[in-house]
From TrEMBL:
This is Multiple sugar transport system substrate-binding protein. Belongs to the bacterial solute-binding protein 1 family. GO terms for cellular component: ATP-binding cassette (ABC) transporter complex, substrate-binding subunit-containing. It comes from Amaricoccus macauensis. It holds the Pfam family SBP_bac_8.
């Protein structure tokens, strides 16, 4: 080989290497878990593994405090600076899709077969988001407490009826052993109210909005079923069965573990399950929601992955999401957080959700009782309106008046937004 040939070969090789390096697209991923003790580590591991698994894309993770996250995404959307991969709270997804922030995923229904329904975000018959886990709530109490007061232990197949549940609360109140028989977590005044309390309304037969059209709340938020819910709800407070809206956040957090014995039952989620088990072991019970006449309901849909409509590398963003959905990452996240993994196969890889494990009931609850919040861009407003209505009713407002006012506000917002694209 002549000197000229060798130089040409070196230049050609250098050009090929430079081209290969340039071909690796940079992807940005925004996530809401900054400050959390385990989310930066877990998501950082997924990003590191994905980057090492292939040479086409390189993902960079940027994490935000949850309180500032949604505002950061909205500001970035308005300025045309959205990241490629977005973390989105399930009930908020339709609003971001409708607003043009998100692109439909390139992940098929077949790929998501076996995922809990609440972990898949759909809007206008397309999949826009998917998550590694779901949150689930239960009536958390102790076997010894129910035994002491002669209260039946409900099952998934035979939950408490509304009458049984009310009677159990009255029995425990009359014992004088508790400050309140039930803690609803009234101190948490943000998304907890519609997530945790609208399932009671839905079990009565009402809803936040009419899901057949998503064009009105009339009849579902102020009809007979909703009035019955509102009267029952107000009775919890007037009868002294639960703390009111002025409940101290510190008091509420402490009650989740029953450590001070103030409450007989707490309406709380699987994210607190490990702490309850640590405190009470085999005496702990995670019970299904009561059935108020239209089946027991609990909330569904937590944080999920989505792809930005502004991304120039949507293929890579979808590849990352598909990679992150592996069972091993679901299991890793579940073991760290206590949340339910998205698939049954991943559940078998976890400490708390595998068959026979103490928190496996939460996976069963999600599969059997979970109902997503209204799938509409208008939910952003409807959520706030519902929060105010149940707060006002808890504080003594006339039930029918409060619900009629909520319907008027929701319907006006839907009209002002031309039906939100439904």
């Amino acid at each position: 080989m002549t000197m000229l040939t060798r130089v040409s070969a070196i230049l050609l090789a250098s050009t090929c290497l430079a081209g290969a390096a340039a071909a690796q697209a940079e992807l940005t991923f925004w996530q809401h878990g900054a400050g959390n003790p385990w989310e930066p580590r877990l998501f950082g591991q997924i990003v590191e593994d994905f980057n090492a698994s292939q040479s086409d894309w390189k993902v960079t993770l940027q994490q935000f405090p949850q309180a500032a996250y949604n505002d950061s995404v909205t500001a970035a959307a308005l300025s045309g600076e959205l990241p490629d991969i977005i973390d989105v709270d399930g009930p908020l997804m339709p609003n971001w899709a409708w607003a043009g922030y998100l692109a439909p995923l390139e992940i098929t229904e077949e790929e998501l077969e076996g995922f809990l329904p609440g972990t898949i975000g759909r809007w206008q018959d397309q999949i826009y988001s998917v998550g590694l886990w779901d949150a689930a709530v239960a009536m958390i109490t102790r076997k010894s407490t129910l035994e002491k007061y002669g209260i039946r232990v409900p099952t998934l197949g035979e939950p408490w009826t509304g009458e049984e549940f009310n009677a159990a609360l009255e029995t425990m109140k009359e014992s004088g052993d508790f400050e309140y028989p039930l803690d609803l977590g009234m101190w948490d005044k943000v998304e907890w109210y519609p997530y945790a309390f609208s399932p009671f309304l839905q079990s009565f037969g009402g809803d936040i909005v009419d899901r057949s059209t998503y064009q009105t709340a009339e009849g579902v938020l102020n009809g007979d079923a909703a009035i019955a819910f509102g009267e029952w709800w107000q009775g919890l407070f007037t009868d002294g069965l639960v703390p009111g809206t002025s409940q101290d956040p510190a008091d509420g957090n402490q009650a989740f573990g029953f450590r001070d014995g103030k409450y007989a039952i707490v309406w709380s989620g699987n994210w607190n399950g490990a702490g309850v088990l640590e405190a009470f072991g085999d005496d702990a019970l995670f019970l299904p929601a009561p059935d108020f006449g239209n089946g027991p309901k609990i909330g569904a849909a937590s944080w999920q992955f989505a792809v930005s409509a502004q991304s120039e590398n949507q293929q890579g963003a979808n590849a990352f999401i598909r990679f992150a959905l592996q069972d091993k990452y679901q299991a890793m996240f579940s073991d760290a957080s206590g949340l339910a993994p998205a698939t049954a196969t991943a559940a078998q890889m976890t400490e708390n959700y595998k068959e026979g494990a103490p928190m496996a009931v939460f996976y069963d609850l999600s599969a059997a009782q979970a109902l997503v919040r209204p799938v509409t861009p208008g939910y952003v407003v409807q959520s706030a309106v519902f929060r105010k209505a149940v707060s006002d009713i808890a504080d003594g407002a006339d039930v029918a008046t409060a619900l009629d006012a909520a319907v008027d506000e929701i319907d006006a917002d839907i009209e002002n937004n031309q039906g939100y694209g439904h």
